[in-house]
Amino acid sequence: MDLAVIICPLVAFLLYYDTLQAGFVYDDKRAILENADVTVASESSTMSALMVHDFWGTPLNASESHGSYRPLVTLSFRWTAHLVGVNHAYWYHWTNVLLHCVITAAVTMIAGGASTLFLQENKNKNELRHGNYVTGLLFAAHPIHCEAVAGLVGRADLLCTFFVLAGLVNYGRRASLTMTLLLTCAAFFSKEYGIMLTPICLLYDVVLVIHGHPRQSKRNNRMLFKRAILVLWSVALVAYRFWISGFQTPQFAKADNPTAASSSWTTRTLTFLYLPVFHFGLLLYPRWLSFDWSMDAIQPVTCINDIRNMATLIFYAILVTVVRKTVEQQSQNKTQKILVALAILITTIPFLPATNVFAYVGFVAAERILYLPSVGFCLLVGIGVQKLLVQQSNRTIICFSLLIVLLASGRRTIQRNNDWIDEEHLYRSGIEINPPKAYGNLGVVLQESGRLTEAEWNFKKALSYRPNMADVHHNLGNLFQQQGRYEESLQAYNLAILHRPQLAAAYSQKAKVLYKLKRWPEAERTLLACTQLTGHLQKDPNAHQSAKVSATILMADLLSQNVRPSDCTSIQRNTNKILNCDPIKASRVNEAEDWLLRARKLAPRNPLVYFQLGEFLSARKRHDEAAEVYIQAVRIEPDSIAWTVAAAHALHDASRNVEAEVYFRRAVALVPM
């Protein structure tokens, strides 16, 4: 075995070892901790349901679905959760790091074979190994991989890359067609751009035909049949993907991809032409990296005079020139051209779905989508360095320069991995590139840690860059509410609703403040408005639904407290005197029960809803009904002491003492010793 296949993955492991101590950051929480398909928190989270849900656990045919389809990744999260528990981030990170090491080994092996073929006429066999060392070490150390490896949701890119490389090698060896089809399916079910394995294979065959490679001249009819099967299989996979989503394309917020929402054809064209250049720049010089490139992190190219158009022209001119050179039919250097063409295909083809050419995507730029293209980039660098070393000139300078590049890459990777260690470090690292998003997210982290003054400053700083950020207004309102600054919180919630009328959480929290201030009519109107909201185009459908459930429960609580807007807090004309409401006239107990039943229908697997309904029934001496409701809560969450004790008391009050004893004993067993 080539020593490079051991050394390069070992370097990768050492560089990413610190990420094992990282937690769940950014999108990891939604994809894992809040995803019922991972936590198996509901009976609907079966394998069949997983195959028709998006990456976040939302049905693909729902209007609020993000459209990201990665069932194999979700399944891998579920297996990890089943084996070690949902909340143990350590083992999730272990899986990501090991995958990166395995892929590094695979890239190194591919580069080793490529280098050998490329320099088969060289007499010094030891020099054949330089290319795979360069490719493997660069791939192991490249900072562009940090998001994919250190961020748990990046597992989609890791698995997709693994299956694409396996499928490419299998196809190149002319091995089992069935295996190629299975690997194509696995790549596609890991991440959508995995389907690009098919055009990579077919275009690679085209290159072989152009150069008259002997492997392409044999069994031509059989190969045509295999290619046809591969194309049909890929078309079937794409058709299946559209079918389960109801043949609808996902809708994204304007801030996610502002250029896509631009009314100017010039702006859209020039910007979308520039974005591949920007991504390639990240491969060349990964100095500025960010957890999020949305909003105005990359300014759109709005006119011909923009200097970035020059970079675009140079980039595509070089790309066209290189492609033309690789397909020229010359007797010399055929092997070299074939290998360069393969590397270019791996670099460019998987990136095509992110170019907004086929459909608009929900991001401007993303580092993790470069994980697979970076394989081709590293192969190109390895081939180029190998070629320079064989020329027997300036070897010392080349080796020293290469060492500097690898050391700088490793240092930047370690630095970037430290950013991904927790959310505070991550968001602080993004302030330079995307200040509104970074400050807004950082404010949430600081608020959760009790650093309210710092949190308030960060929220206001975010709004100074982008005043229409509804989420930030909502979070600022939560902070004011936490501090008892109710009037300021109401102002913040009103601004959140103004900028995003469908933000259910803002309505729900506003109603809570009004409830505390005993402004009953306003509270009820706000709650009614919240319960009537749709989930269309919501970034987080689960949070939206949870807010509606909370509003429904609060409405029931408001009504059960014998409060009737028409009978309460009426202000006498020409005075400031507030009249108390009449409890008897205001009684709307039946209506309150209806709202609780509605909440149960909205969230049939939420034990808190059953607990609230049980409390309501118990307060009205309907102990048998209350006991059954509490028992349902226990069935949903068997390890909850609160639900178990409540069920025991209700059973006792209903004179069902034998059953009550069972639940009391169960509650005692749940108490940690």
Short structural description:
The chain has 673 residues and is mostly helical. Helices cover 64% and strands 0% of the residues.
**What fraction, in percent, of the residue positions are helical?**
55-70%
Give the radius of gyration.
Answer: 30 Å
Show unreliable segments: 115-128, 563-586
- What is the percentage of strand-forming residues? under 5%
Instruction: Supply the number of helical segments.
Output: 30
Tertiary shape = elongated
Q: Main β-sheet, in a few words?
A: none
DSSP summary, beta strand count: 0
Measured distance between first and last alpha carbons: 54 Å
Mean pLDDT: 86
Spell the H/E element sequence.
Answer: HHHHHHHHHHHHHHHHHHHHHHHHHHHHHH
**Category from helices, strands and their pairing:** mainly alpha
Highlighted features:
30 helices; mainly alpha; 673 residues; elongated
Molecular structure report:
With 673 residues, this protein is mostly helical. The chain contains 30 helices and no strands. It has helices spanning 4-16, 27-33, 36-39, 47-50, 71-84, 89-118, 130-141, 146-150, 155-172, 177-190, 197-210, 220-244, 265-284, 308-327, 334-348, 373-390, 395-419, 423-429, 435-448, 452-465, 470-482, 486-499, 504-516, 520-531, 541-560, 589-602, 607-619, 623-636, 641-653, 657-670. The protein is elongated and about 95 Å long. The relative contact order is 0.07. Residues 115-128 and 563-586 have low confidence and may be disordered.
